Task: inverse folding
């Protein structure tokens, strides 16, 4: 587990420290020295007395009694004995193993890695790596790479599953002026991985003291539940998290029997997980560091922005990009419009964007910013675009922006495009600790992707009218594979999901008795084949006994059919709810309109079970076909509340029946009063 | 018109040249001096003999006999007399008017601008501006702003409708290493605008000598036809064009009576125009300059890319972004896979991305690039990601990449992320004239948006079986407003568009006679109301005379209904084709599936009339509902060729009937054999 010895050591030994700074052991020592580590620093190097001016011991025994942290940069085979000896004799409780040659390379390496982990676990220590670039905290710069970021307790906390990618992310972050509070690269994650770092951040979080900005680069999510729990907890405490999850797992490419299976790629599970947690998902380094830059400013408390500029074109591109992503640039009218015009030179525009013209002064700029901050309740933030044409210096304008940013209650985002011709002024501005966004559209995309990320979902599971005991006993008794219709219905009934009145007929007599009790019109479907329609196994709207019997006879001749399902015919619009079990993530639940919408247009939205009502409602409303559910010109809609409730109920069912690998309720038939499941397939596998 | 005096003057006078470089007249003179103009340079300033060391005349008369170009930076009111005098007495045939205070400010200014234009037109001269930042050519740096880009005949030609935006675009371009061949800012475009600059570029294009890269920033397209003509001509000659068109015109917000009107915003016209021309559309400065950077490399001749890297994470993010945008990163298998593995260290990966590991050498890197270039026919370009962890210098790798880039037949795109820790190496690499892409995802988005831009459409208009004379005479005789069904049919027939058999009945007798000749089943629709369904004015699938007569009686009672349209009932899938006339652009043609697809899902695609078969096919295939047209599991499709042909025919009809402001063919009924228009509305206005 992460401990104080790792994050705040009083003493460090660099095992394999060297004078050659082109080697990890040499470079990491140099970085620690350059970073002014305040504790005791040693090197373990059998060939030297001093390395880079640091005392070097020839053996572990020569080291002082207590060494908090060991940073190990020697070949893999020599690692385990040294780690054991340090743990056992020097009270070392934290290890960062830089060395490669473990599980990422060979079977023997994996064995070594296991021994390494056991050696650290035995003393209840912390292990980072192996095969990583190190750790950076406000106490020490324990990475062997460049660049080394500026450390600042309120800067970003950053955990990365890839060392080289972490380095390249720093390359993108540093020119922007982003600072860091910590960097942990987990390497092979033998003991501590991304999820454990998040857990530590969550458990150790102190409001006002801990950094509120967390960045993640992850290639492989090992424990989605843990990630969800701690990421959403951190966000509820006031943190803001952005993450890149790169690559799509092989699992996503598996062929599956159902539509849901084909539609829900493993990446939808990641997407759903991030949305549930409230993590802003990014797809590239530049995007991640821009979102992190926005995180350095106060939160927008609404979606209305004022744009203040002296250059029309940039304002128009910014407006296009913000509006395209769901943010508002409301027209400014009435008194506010007149008040702002009064501040400005003739010819200026006080609608939104507010154009103060090339002749606008720093004073006017400041007055407009202040007016938006104090006099306009319906404006939630300001974006200022101010460059230079090179005719004169713009120090006064940047000084004004700086002062207003410090004083305004609302966030002010600066776009200073003249990074080369006004680089002195921009540097002056940045020296106050601000972050500049040189490109308005890049900023707009970061703002809108933050805006589009929901708050973390509630954790409580909806259970009203759901008989969990009945669900469990049905599941436990069921054989693997596709369930028969009766078992399907038991499960859906236990979850409180309305199902169509129906019965099974294996003979003509059963058929006619059933028909009488249900009443016409009826629908008849074969039992057996998975793709019923493909074999001519579905007939709808049967209105007479003659028709019913003729269909029954025909269907009994279809291969594999011994009985048919007889249902009361439902009328309304076809809906669909499905789910697919994604290993480790749980169930990705999909919803949408049925028929062509789901099969051809792929118009579905998805979330991760269990779902709250808010999540399910947001899924339904994000469908392109939502207007059909809401009702369109002259056409009645579908009961949205009931649809949302069924999605939630199904997600609870799945939460308590992880044996269900695939489920398709397709179709459900809905109208303005009710929604009823008329066909479903459920496939289970033993856990 | 643009002339040699403007682009390649032998003599320049700066009118209003000053010693104060915080004034446009001072700064522009300084920029010309710094840019080493080789011709004769003068200043016109009544108060000075010398300005910045340049001889200054107190009056026009004192200037030498011939002055090719005048750059005017004095107040608007004084501009016209000086321009006139120069034109009349000094043979000046080119004018760049920097001064503001013309049509952009006041009515009087607009009058002055008109006089200015007339004065230049009188001598058949060229006028840039007023209200611009100037012109930059390889001969002189005639802009008053900073930064001034590096000039290079093979650099970008850049025309901008906004001065400040041009400056900010240069701020984004220069750090990337982009060079420029020319910059023209058109200001108020009194005489020469964006379109005229394109015309000049087109007419003066010399293969191998003219720059092949053209950039455009435009806020208002005044002459879409001219822009289309010259942009597509340039692209056919081998140029590559990227453009930003910012803002959506007011016209797009007009309320209109038809669905098409509501769906086709003015921005669809821009989008359609750019696609027709083959212009890569960008939405921000960073995006524009990245696309321009890609333009500096050879064209990709296919969509298969090899990624070569020593850092896994960046390769994965790049793969995700390229594949998401339609480019391929094909798996490398078989002999090629083994050959590449043989080049590399054990543990490397030769699938795609090719991972040469952190231990990979410059030699190996070069060998892999060369292998992809010479041995792999199915790879069309390579992307190399090579950074530094800060342990050692990477000069050798960058030297290798540079050499391979110069020799490879296929494009090699370099991603060198370590812009701070390896900035010396990156600078060394850039000094060879290359452009670096520090972020892989930003490069991927530029590559994919270039990939998604079609080639310019053919110019020939399809006329087979289209009776243009009949179209014209029908249009000329028709009254304004919505046409009656008979006139609708005349137009569609003249264009060779199949229409349903039908007739109009104003009495019961006409009705029954018509029914007999058409045969049941029939559809009946009211004539008069625009939204027929809303008033209960459409009944389909009438199978008996009794039913027909009862519907007729009911419909005649609907307000405004004096007659009904009786049609042979068609069966099949509903399709839709519509168009809206966009002032100056012409007709934006939309197509899609009918009913809910168009009304609720808005699943339409669009193009600008007249359309080629290729364009229409690409429109049909880009529909989300295209699988319905193609035919899905167990469901017959719709005749795609016929659909494409009708779209083309309609677009030709519109080309010769610009009086048509809106047209909706909704629905057309299609099956695998035929497609027939069963309802249409056409609204015309006098030209």
Result:
């Amino acid at each position: 587990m992460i401990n104080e010895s790792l994050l705040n050591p009083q003493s460090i030994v660099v095992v394999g420290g060297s004078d050659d700074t082109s080697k990890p052991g040499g470079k990491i020592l140099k970085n620690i020295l350059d970073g002014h580590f305040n504790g005791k620093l040693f090197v373990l190097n059998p060939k030297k007395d001093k390395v880079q001016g640091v005392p070097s011991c020839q053996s572990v025994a020569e080291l002082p009694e207590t060494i908090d942290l060991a940073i190990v940069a020697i070949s893999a085979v020599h690692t385990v004995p040294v780690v054991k000896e340090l743990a056992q004799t020097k009270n070392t409780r934290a290890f960062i193993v830089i060395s490669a040659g473990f599980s990422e390379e060979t079977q023997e390496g994996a064995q070594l890695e296991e021994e390494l982990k056991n050696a650290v676990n035995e003393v209840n220590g912390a292990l980072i790596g192996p095969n990583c670039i190190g750790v950076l905290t406000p106490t020490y710069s324990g990475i062997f790479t460049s660049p080394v970021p500026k450390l600042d307790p309120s800067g970003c906390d950053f955990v990365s599953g890839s060392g080289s990618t972490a380095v390249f992310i720093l390359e993108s972050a540093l020119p922007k002026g982003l600072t860091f509070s910590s960097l942990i690269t987990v390497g092979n994650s033998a003991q501590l991985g991304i999820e454990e770092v998040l857990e530590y951040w969550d458990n150790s979080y102190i409001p006002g003291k801990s950094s509120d900005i967390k960045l993640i680069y992850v290639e492989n999510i090992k424990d989605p539940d843990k990630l969800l729990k701690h990421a959403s907890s951190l966000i509820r405490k006031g943190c803001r998290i952005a993450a890149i999850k790169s690559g799509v797992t092989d699992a996503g490419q598996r062929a599956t029997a159902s539509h849901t299976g084909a539609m829900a790629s493993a990446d939808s599970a990641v997407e759903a997980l991030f949305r549930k947690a409230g993590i802003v998902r990014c797809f590239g380094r530049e995007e991640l560091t821009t979102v992190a830059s926005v995180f350095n400013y106060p939160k927008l408390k609404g979606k209305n922005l004022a744009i203040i500029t002296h250059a029309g074109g940039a304002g128009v591109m910014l407006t296009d990009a913000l509006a395209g992503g769901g943010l508002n640039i409301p027209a400014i009218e009435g008194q506010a419009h007149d008040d702002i015009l009064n501040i400005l030179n003739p010819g200026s525009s006080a609608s939104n964007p507010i154009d103060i013209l090339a002749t606008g002064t720093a004073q006017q700029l400041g007055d407009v910013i202040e007016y938006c901050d104090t006099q306009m309740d319906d404006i939630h933030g300001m974006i200022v675009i101010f460059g230079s044409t090179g005719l004169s210096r713009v120090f006064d304008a940047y000084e004004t922006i700086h002062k207003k940013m410090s004083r305004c209650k609302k966030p002010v985002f600066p776009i200073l495009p003249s990074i080369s011709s006004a680089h002195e002024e921009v540097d002056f501005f940045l020296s106050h600790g601000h972050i500049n966004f040189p490109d308005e559209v890049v900023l707009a995309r970061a703002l809108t992707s933050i805006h589009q990320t929901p708050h973390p979902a509630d954790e409580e599971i909806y259970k009203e009218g759901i008989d969990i005991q009945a669900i469990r006993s049905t599941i436990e008794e069921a054989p693997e594979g596709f369930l028969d219709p009766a078992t399907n219905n038991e499960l859906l009934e236990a979850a409180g999901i309305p199902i169509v009145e129906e019965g099974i007929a294996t003979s003509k007599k059963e058929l006619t008795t059933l028909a009488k009790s249900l009443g016409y019109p009826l629908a008849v479907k074969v039992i057996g084949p998975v793709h019923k329609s493909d074999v001519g196994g579905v007939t709808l709207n049967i209105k007479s006994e003659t028709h019913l019997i003729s269909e029954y006879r025909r269907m009994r001749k279809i291969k594999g059919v011994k009985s048919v399902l007889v249902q009361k015919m439902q009328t309304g619009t076809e809906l669909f709810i499905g789910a697919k079990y994604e290993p480790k993530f749980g169930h990705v639940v999909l919803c949408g309109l049925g028929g062509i919408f789901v099969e051809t247009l792929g118009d579905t939205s998805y979330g991760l079970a269990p779902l709250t009502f808010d999540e399910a409602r947001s899924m339904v409303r994000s469908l392109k076909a939502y207007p059909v559910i809401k009702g369109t010109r002259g056409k009645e809609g579908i009961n949205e509340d009931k649809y949302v409730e069924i999605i939630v109920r199904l997600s609870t069912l799945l939460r308590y029946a992880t044996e269900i690998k695939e489920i398709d309720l397709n179709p459900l038939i809905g109208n303005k009063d009710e929604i009823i499941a008329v066909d479903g397939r459920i496939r289970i596998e033993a856990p």
DSSP finds 24 helices and 29 strands in chain A. Chain A touches chain B through 76 residues (CB under 8 Å). The domain at 149-249+256-295 of chain A is CATH 3.40.50.261 (Rossmann fold).
